[in-house]
């Protein structure tokens, strides 16, 4: 059973999500929170698998709550999905930087929401190709010189190649076609790379690809 915590200051939004999620055989709503501080407390008490976290909330905003969750070693298995009103929310970049596994717009289709909840539990990032590329463009615009030392030395040549392709926004299927391997092989390489680098999910691989210098601004053409 996938346990979900709903964090949103609008009770109607929480009620709608709760009705949809609780109707699924494999998902249950473990709790609700109306602000970031309450969300943080309930995450620590309930240890949900997934938190659907609104970005803008009183007391403590969703961005800071997410940062505190992802920086807590005891909560490393909790996945955070940010909820936003607009796809190009100004805080999306910082949300991914803070460790969120992705984001959803609040008016997303019910089937997409359910797919998203199940996907993050499997370690996938919720970033559509178009959104990923815009996110990467933002990283390129803000990028700094890469750190002098980074644990990329632990990666094989193929894993570095796969990580670079993740970094420029390719999906597993696109990576498979580029490298002429099966999608399962591509997914395995991505998973092993995340394990070696301690990345929570695919979204953090994008961050690490830029911060390590493996991918540099201008690669998008």
Automatic annotation (TrEMBL):
InterPro entries: CheY-like_superfamily, NreC/VraR/RcsB-like_REC, Sig_transdc_resp-reg_C-effctor, Sig_transdc_resp-reg_receiver, Tscrpt_reg_LuxR_C, WalR-like. SMART domains: HTH_LUXR, REC. CDD domains: LuxR_C_like (cd06170), REC_NarL-like (cd17535). Residues 148-213 form the HTH luxR-type domain. Signal peptide: none annotated. The modification 4-aspartylphosphate is found at residue 54. It holds the Pfam family GerE. Keywords: DNA-binding, Phosphoprotein, Transcription, Transcription regulation. Gene3D superfamilies: 3.40.50.2300. Residues 3-121 form the Response regulatory domain. The keyword Transcription regulation applies. This is Response regulator transcription factor. It comes from Streptomyces vastus.
């Amino acid at each position: 059973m996938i346990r979900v915590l709903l964090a949103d200051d609008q009770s109607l939004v929480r009620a709608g999500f709760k009705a949809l999620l609780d109707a699924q055989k494999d998902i249950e709503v473990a709790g609700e929170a109306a602000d970031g501080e309450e969300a943080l407390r309930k995450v620590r008490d309930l240890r949900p698998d997934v938190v659907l976290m609104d970005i803008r909330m009183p007391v403590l905003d969703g961005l800071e709550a997410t940062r505190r969750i992802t920086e807590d070693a005891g909560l490393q298995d909790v996945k955070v999905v940010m909820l936003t009103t607009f796809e190009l929310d100004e805080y999306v970049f910082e949300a991914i930087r803070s460790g969120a596994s992705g984001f959803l717009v609040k008016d997303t289709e019910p089937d997409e929401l359910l797919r998203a909840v199940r996907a993050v539990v499997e370690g996938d990032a919720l970033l559509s190709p178009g959104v990923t590329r815009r996110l990467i463009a933002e990283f390129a615009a803000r990028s700094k010189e890469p750190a002098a030392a980074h644990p990329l030395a632990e990666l094989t040549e193929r894993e570095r190649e796969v990580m670079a392709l993740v970094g420029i926004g390719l999906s597993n299927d696109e990576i498979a076609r580029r490298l002429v391997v099966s999608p399962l092989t591509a997914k395995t390489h991505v998973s092993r790379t995340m394990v070696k680098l301690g990345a929570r999910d695919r979204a953090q691989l994008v961050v690490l690809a830029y911060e390590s210098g493996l991918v540099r601004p201008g690669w998008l053409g």
